[in-house]
Write a structure and sequence with these properties.
Distance between the termini: 41 Å
Structural class: alpha/beta
Order of helices and strands: HEHEEHEHEHHEEEEHE
Number of domains: 1
Number of helices: 7
Strand order of the largest sheet: 3-2-1-4-5-6
Radius of gyration: 18 Å
Length: about 260
């Protein structure tokens, strides 16, 4: 076991009483009305010739929703995957590139013929040390490679624990961030480093900050805020709708919106 892993385990053990207290607080916070909720209006049906989107993390929960949403809106989809069988029914509708996201050659194949990039990549426990800082490392490679293919738009699915200048957290937002720091310290370090790297880059990035992502379809427009997250969960279908909206939108370029679902 590495020193980093030992440290994370120690943090988690010591944090358990705090997590229990915060979890009880959730029962109160979930019933509270968040300040200045902003329902997001989706821009479905943009029409015209849709660009081709390159998707990373397509075989995961969020990535699967992204692929379906993009296909339903008429986008051409290219996906970098290690195991094509995990795409299921979508295999025939997607241009599949088999490879690892940490392999620059595989990323170059993914970007060939792509216009925009969306990433829902995250750590896989079975990958061991290779999962460390996976989001930061993949984004670093993409930032370097994207100019070779004249691709500038990059949307990243991240976590609500990421800190950005200008945040004004509500009680709910503070609890979500605290829980993330206590429960997933390594992942949060990775996501924070990824944001700081994107903020220094020249790509047209948007980093979408999410609380717990639930395997649920779209029900209504989500709540979007640049200052605080408004609930403890987001439906994967609503997250996917928002991310795909950003492919041709300039509204949140260079920004890190929080997204959450209404109850």
């Amino acid at each position: 076991m590495t020193v980093e892993h030992q440290g994370d385990l120690a943090v988690r053990h010591c944090a358990r009483p705090v997590i229990l207290i915060l979890a009880l607080s959730v029962l109160v916070a979930c019933s509270a009305v968040d300040t200045q909720p902003k329902p997001y209006r989706s821009h479905h049906g943009a029409g015209g010739n849709q660009p081709t989107v390159a998707i990373l993390g397509a075989t995961g929960l969020t990535g699967g929703y992204l692929v379906r949403e993009a296909l339903e809106r008429g986008y051409k989809v290219r996906a970098l995957v290690r195991n094509p069988d995990r795409l299921g029914w979508q295999t025939n509708d997607v241009s599949i590139i088999v490879g690892d996201a940490l392999d620059p050659a595989a990323l170059r194949k993914l970007l060939e013929g792509s216009d925009v990039v969306a990433s829902a990549i995250g750590p896989v426990r079975s990958d061991g040390d290779a999962a460390k800082m996976i989001s930061t490392n993949v984004s670093r490679l993409l930032i370097d490679i994207m100019p070779e293919y004249a691709v500038s738009r990059y949307i990243v699915v991240s976590g609500a624990g990421v800190e950005v200048s200008g945040d004004e957290l509500s009680v709910t937002g503070w609890m979500v961030r605290t829980l993330a720091a206590l429960r997933f310290p390594s992942t949060l370090r990775d996501k924070q480093a990824e944001y700081e790297m994107l903020a220094r880059s020249n790509v047209h990035w948007t980093l979408v900050r999410c609380p717990l992502i639930q395997d649920e379809k779209y029900q209504r427009p989500p709540n979007v805020s640049l200052t605080t997250v408004s609930s403890f969960h987001v439906r994967a279908g609503e997250l996917a709708s928002f991310v795909i909206d950003q492919l041709q939108s300039t509204e949140f370029i260079g920004q890190s919106p929080f997204i959450a679902s209404f109850h």
